[in-house]
Amino acid sequence: MTDSTQKTASYTVPGMSTEDGARVAEILQDRLNALNDLHLTLKHVHWNVVGPNFISVHEMLDPQVEAVRGFADDVAERIATLGGSPKGTPGTIVAQRSWDDYSIGRAPAIEHLGALDLVYSGVISDYREAIEKTGDVDPVTEDLLIGHSGQLELFHWFVRAHLENAGGQLSTAGASSEKEAAADAG
Q: How many CB atoms lie within 10 A of CB 52?
């Protein structure tokens, strides 16, 4: 039996070199890892949120989970279209990610939202870098990533609206870890 995960296609989309297709697919693999991690993290929060705002946060997260799962499917299919082989296993996420695992367990809603503020900030910042890297070589991928970014930014705003005071300051401003953001939010 051969390991097909190690093979790369000898083609990509018309008008793009196979090298450029492979480079874009590699950028997208990082986004696929982030999206798979994000939808699992959002579901984890959905299951572990407690306290007075439980139901509003619990119900706010399910549509985000479904949308992010859809984004992961979009990205995986774009990788395949480019001639790559998308990897969606948990081991791939863990081996290739540049971020730590989500660190909050059962906790009040506001603490999870504080931690999610940092999660979304990281995902969106990395999305913007991927948009910049793919724009000149593959406008189709750039467009896909821009569409996802708009929705991710909206979801981030939903989270941040719970953390903002009337003066426009976030309770998590300056936090550098999920646990610190959770503590600042709580």
A: 9
Nearest-angstrom CA–CA distance, 153 and 70:
16
pLDDT at 8 over 50: yes
Tokens of 100: 């730590």
CB 178 within 8 A of CB 103: yes
List pLDDT tens digits, range 71-101.
999 999 999 999 999 999 999 999 998 888 9
* Residue 21 region by backbone torsions, left for phi larger than 0, else alpha for psi between -120 and 50, else beta: alpha
Residues with Cβ < 8 Å from 168, sequence gap 6 or more?
Answer: none
Distances (CA, A) of 127 to 38, 93, 105, 139: 13, 16, 26, 15
Domains observed in the chain: 15-185 (1.20.1260.10)
